[in-house]
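Hi there, hope your week has been kind to you so far. Would you mind checking whether the tokens look sensible for this chain? I owe you a coffee for this, so here goes:
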Amino acid sequence: MPTKPITDEAALARGVDYEKYRIAAKRAEKATAVARFILWCVLLVGSVTFMLPLYMMIVMSLKTPHEIAATSVWSWPEHLTWENFQLVLSNPNAPFFLFFRNSAIIATLTTMGVVVSSSLVAYPFARLRFRGRDRLFVLLLSTMMLPGLVLMIPTFIMYKYLHWVDTFNPLIVPAWFGGGAFNIFLMRQFMMGIPRELDEAAFIDGATHRTIFWRIVMPNSGAALATIGIFCFVYTWKDFMGPLIYLSSPEKQTLELGLNTYRALNQERWELLMAGSVLVMIPLIVMFLLGQRYFVKGIVMSGIK
């Protein structure tokens, strides 16, 4: 079928349409640039706002008591002093390294238990098909709506009958039996994104579910494991209520309880309290910086974003 020839008027009309399109594209590009600039400004303001307490804490930890009383809390110290950190580390009434060891033991073992147990529970929800699977998963997620304060008293009574009070067991052992609904949900979402063709190929080669879990699913879930590990370690390291309820011996206190003890001993020494807070926060910053890439990847690929 012969096509209709293009006349000069049609070409002119097409040229006008193209010019309008080009102008509209430039306007859209400028609007996008302006919106992006506004977004960056909002993020910058929010970041600075959240960083101000951290900045104030570091500044006060590097000042002398006289300088704290004479200057603003926001002003950078004229003469940096590291004596505050030395006093915190060498205080015999609040042994920092003993508290650090206790926190490290509890946080490390708890994180290991959460990573292993949540992966074991999430695998059948993500890779297996069995009757009642979805209902059980909904029931599991419903436990997230139950406030922890409701379970505080019966849980304490149970651990008291087990003679676990004033030991690390109430803070460590539960992590090895499930890992928490949120962590299971995070692992399940990530495991569902792993291609099932890998499982089918492994079944053809004679692999069992245990082999598939340890040799296929777990090696491909590094980002989700790092995310759960960071979440759990930070939460356990900064936990105050759990150790306060179950630990009563001074030699078994964690860093958070130790800071509270140090605050009671040095109520007016803000520079020492800030120095202790900085020392407690350093391991969390280092851990997050080391696992930041895997942390962001795990959040995005698990469907939380």
